[in-house]
Amino acid sequence: MTVVALGLPAREDRVAQLTECVRRDLTYLNYPVNREWTLPRKIGDRTAFDVLIVGGGQSGLVAAFALGQERVSNVLIVDRNAAGQEGPWNTYARMPNLRTPKDVTGPDLGIPSLTPRAWYEARFGPDAWAGLATFPRVAWHQYLAWYRDTLGLKVQNHTVVERIAPHGDVLAACIAGPAGRNTLYARKIVLATGLEGSSSWRIPEIVSANLAKSKFAHAGDDIDFVALRGRRVAVLGAGASAFDNAGAALDAGAQTVDLFVRRPALSNVNPLYWMTFSGVLAYFHDLPDLHRWRFGRHLEIAGTPPPPTSVARCKRFAQFTIRLGEPWTGVLDGPEDFTVETPNRRDRFDFVICATGASQSLELRSELSDVSDQVALWRDRFVAPLGEESETLGGYPYLGPAFEFTEREPGAAPWLRNIHNFSFSAVASMGNVGGAPSLRFAIPRLVGGIVRDLFVGDAEAYLEDFRNFRTPESEQVHW
Question: pTM of this prediction?
């Protein structure tokens, strides 16, 4: 998308000045030394990457930047999408504005000139910033593009990681890219795969088993909203995604949009807001398992409400109806449309959008299908107290302190510690991670664990190199 979509004049000269300011600031952070230090791993005539990052969205970019600050530069970022389409902001994210407060920081990792505010004020002016309530989605997407370009972060697009498997003391990633299929080798792999995490989009069985595929889509799919003009649309879900997709359908001219919610009322309390302070963001993983489980259970039960702006976007349309306490109990397909039955009534629709989140099943992720049966899940490590069970929480991966997978059977797959699951499915182990506010705390934990392993894993070689160090500090002094 272009700047014109924001309706604000852009000042490219000021952005160019800010770009130079960032690069100058980074030269001031050259301590202790600008030194490449990792030791290469040779696989035949090829050199393995130190780190392969799967996903070129905000988490993948910030992870690469942080690794660069630690002088780990033998890094490759791959993304399945086209250039400019990485992450959700220009694809399935359909809200006009982020729900995060405008003064959010995180991707900058503490560098003021790299903050979202610095970029926004440079591009649109301080007055535009002062009049802003929350960050526009389009602007956030543009900020990340500037962030990537300013820091010189390269992304290999149109590249899908199909399989991950151990290969000696490194990992082998089978990819499909612009040049065909190939195998990449890496000592560490970071799965920066966002909301999908280590799972797949979930379509309720009552929909998938009864409707033709042309009559439904998940909110995470590429939906042709123009084709919904004049159609009767149903939306399943109660969160932000449900209202954002309903709003997109209404904006496109849908005849009616009915949003179905199983609960009798919408919550107006967002528990994630409580979780945005340093204690949780930095040290959630250090809590005992029982406490982490109970935090997760409360989050699951309380749910996350839709943003008020998303609700207001839908309410301004007379053709919008919210159906509280109406789960679908039956679906009957027809030649052109279909019939839905709820405890209250029967209705006919032309299309349904399922804003029903993701299912937590590692085996559904192609890149993990060969290793998923060896990864420990929460149900393998923790027995919930009576009355506090949760099938959903039990299906999340049980991660180590640097977001690494752990073994289901101790000693059976030690190489799993080299796959770091930096995605939404880390929430059960790591707390409120994935959003921009958490990056300032989560990225150092992730990168610290990676750098530690890269060094400790080669301790003998470093010791030998240390013993052979002969570079004089100054000219020989003869007494």
Answer: 0.93
